[in-house]
Specification:
- One of its GO terms (cellular component) is cytoplasm.
- There is one protein chain.
- Helices cover 40% and strands 12% of the residues.
- The protein has 288 residues and is an alpha/beta fold.
- Helix 1 packs parallel to helix 9.
Length: 288
Amino acid sequence: MSTKAVSAIRRAHDLGVTHYDTAEMYGWGAGEQLVGRAIKPFRDDVTIATKFGMTKQFGVNSHPDHIRQVVDASLVNLDVDHIDVLYQHRLDPAVPIEDVVGVMADLVTAGKVRYLGLSEATPDALRRAHAVHPISVLQTEFSIFAQDAIPLFPLLDELGIGFIAYSPLARGFLTGAVRAADCYERGDFRQFMEWWNTPNFHVNLRIVERLAAVGEERGVSLPQLALSWILAQGDFIVPIPGSRNPDRVAENIAATDVELTDDELRRIADIAPHGAHGDRGSPSPWLD
């Protein structure tokens, strides 16, 4: 296991972070084991989220028996007696959402899970799921580059559902260290994303440069600007930037102390009114 990653998680805790997100598919158990090892000294002070529903072939599987098997394995991997937040990683068209949430609710009754969540779910699925058992949180990609979740916010407010923003730094584009797709190893996911495609890459790079200039004027880094922008969109939103570097973790957490002005928010909106050029890679089911 990565000693540096464990150190990053523990540094986050020292700086006040109390929620940690992982999933079965992040290393097929290895990611959960790492998180479990890292948070063990302060398990009772934090919440852990994990997910089920993906296959190693990047398909989906939310059949009831599979859900139970994955959750039992996650409990072992995390070395905990309960999971604080359990997500369905992606909707499974072969299994009605009512059946999926019914199994998840049984896991709550059994004491294995406390709260339920969905990831990249449609408005219809959210409503139907919430009717079976309260859904506490929706997780979806959200950043200055990926803004297509904004139309969902009124529904989340109506149902009292929180929002977890994954990839808040736009899969690395908003870290200030972005490179062209052909600079990464062969098969890297960036080589298949429209954000990195020509001519999108050069347009998006210009957006990054203009955003970085806003941050420089304010005295904050580009990642801090990007994270503070997310926090400014609503107090029901929590971004989950990932990093194995303890110093990067500290830099990201410092964004919580940055309150953007109305003028700065307007400038960001002018620079990236609809996000990045090109599709974000993951389908947005509510836009179909």
